[in-house]
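Rotation project, supervised by the postdoc (A.L.). Task for the rotation student: set up a whole-complex structure prediction and record inputs and outputs verbatim in this book. Inputs entered:
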Amino acid sequence: MSADPKGVLTGVHFLDGDHACCEGALAAGCRVVFGYPITPSTEVVERIARRIPTVGGVFVQMEDEIASSIAIQGAAWGGQKVMTVSSGPGISLMMEHIGYAAMTETPCVFINVQRAGPSTGLPTLAAQGDMMQARWGSHGDYEIIAISPNSPQECFELTVHAFNLAERFRVPVMFMMDESVGHMTERVVIPNPEQLKIENRQPPTGPKEEFLAYRPKKNMVPEMAPVGAGYKIHVTGLTHDERGYPVMTPEVQHGLVVRLVDKIRKQRDQICINEEEQIEDAEVVIVAYGITSRVVLRTLQMARDKGLKVGVFRPVVVWPFPEERLRQLAKQVKAFVVPELNLGQVVLEVERIAAGDAKTILVPHAGGGLHDPLQILQVVEEVLR
Amino acid sequence: MSKATNPVESYLRMDRMPSIWCPGCGIGIVVNCFARALQQMGVDHDELAVVSGIGCTGRIAGYVDIDSFHTTHGRPIPFATGLKVARPDLKVIVMSGEGDLVSIGGNHLIHAARRNSDVKVICVNNFTYAMTGGQAGPTAPRHSIATTAPYGSFDKPFNLPFLADSTGAVYVARWTTYHVRQLTRSMAEAMSKPGFCFIEVISPCPTIFSRRNRLGDGLDAMRYYKNSSKVVNGANTRMVGLDLNGPIIVGKFIDRDRPTLLEAMDEEIGSKLGKRYVPYATTGVQR
Ligand SMILES: Cc1ncc(C[n+]2csc(CCOP(=O)(O)OP(=O)(O)O)c2C)c(N)n1
Ligand code: SF4
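Outputs recorded:
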């Protein structure tokens, strides 16, 4: 399907990542947004508040992030594409409802413009410290999708994609920006509505009397019935059977939770997006995501200038993690060097997947700034020595 | 509509009966009144949705044969606000306990009342956290015994009608589960009225609250409600606070008009943006 032209601001713009993200949401067809202001994500909701009434949508500033993160889910069941936007402390407050969305299979997008933590931390400065929280911050076993853009252009394009994935898989999608991407202004090209691929949730196809709200289809995702159409659905965060009714047995728990996890883990090939630079002959591969994936391009250039066989691997979608491709690379390379604006989160996955086939070295940074490309180069040189 | 022996059964998920509620519990009476109100109003199943939080009362969503949502503890009101924003054509009813709506969800309650979110809140007040075994809650009367107040509750309980009134609700009533006719009528009135409506239902929890406070069984509760309640429609809500085993003022206290959240939004933004405003309602609500 192509986009609703009302929401698409076709043209060439100079926008920061926050503003571009807002345009991506409107282009994707998001028409209901609830939020609560917090630096450095506030610009997203400010632009939404200005723009959404002109495209037939509603923004309400809620009393807090807890309310925002559940109000969007009410609207999602009301048939809308929805998102909320926050950072650090606000994202922490939303955690229970990320679990609720995962359990009830409610399509929704959570924009997280990451700032340095823990707690109030550095409100105005970048970090990538929420990667593990994004994956498993709510209690219990579940899987979500997390996307990590590295430019305002991607904040537009990948926000559209985030909505598509949320609709297709009926999961919360975590859009993991950071302060520097959010506040960086660059050229953003917004295409014509017909050029945008838009996906919508699958409505019920069979007879109404036979419809079961939580019976999975071939892609492990159940069809989503709209409210007020006679399906009389029941939605609960309790463990539930295919009717959606609570059932308190280990068997039903197993069936449900394994499916919720498998619909993402086993369909990774449809979700993962990676970028690779000069990987063919690489002996060392730098694994980086988000803003750090841009910083390391400078490292790459310096390394290649010195004749070092270095490549860059970037998971654009960080969760689910691109295991297969990294496992292949682990057999090819001497080492993975993993710079992150945290003290070691995604590196744990890289190390697990490398499983001793390649060395894995973290280049940590507690956040508040970006890595110095030279510092990463030194680590690379050390490995190759 | 399926053929049912008892007319209210058409609004219930009979395939889920019997319910989890104890004999003598008031929650079933509230559900019955709700179903009767729908029946009297002639509301079709597809014209409404029910949203609950967590608790014994929160299980209501699981027993009504209507699109229904059992959300998280304390959050049914913002969920309902989101649903109502997306589907302004539906009646959205919140049914939950006082612990859920007023303690953990208290912030949402007062803000939904303030903005006049067009949802109807039916708050079952049994003075305790029943589902978790009888801890003290935001309406636990002074001196009442709870597992977490073994020597008696010592902090001041909320007066719910006063709270709802002072934060902006357009309709506020209180009944007990003894007052089934009045409660049913109030529910119908609230569902027909635009804006944030709040009905408190004083309801017995014989298994936990009554037993622990030596208040007898379900029948004793009814006797108490009958003998100790007084209907004062239009009462000053400031004066309707409750004490353990004391008098209960019931009635319709508030019925006023004020623009709803979406009406106020349309008016404000419409007046500023003029033709550039594309009201949500005109975009054809998605089915
Ligand atoms: C976030 C969270 N905190 C605590 C609980 C545990 N809990 C479940 S029900 C409940 C109290 C319910 O009390 P009330 O709303 O008065 O309902 P009742 O059971 O009395 O009908 C609590 C504390 C929970 N489910 N979630
Ligand atoms: S514990 Fe109390 S409130 Fe819960 S079902 Fe039993 S009587 Fe009702």
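Student's summary: Chain B has one domain: 24-257.
Supervisor addendum: The domain at 24-257 of chain B is CATH 3.40.50.970 (Rossmann fold).
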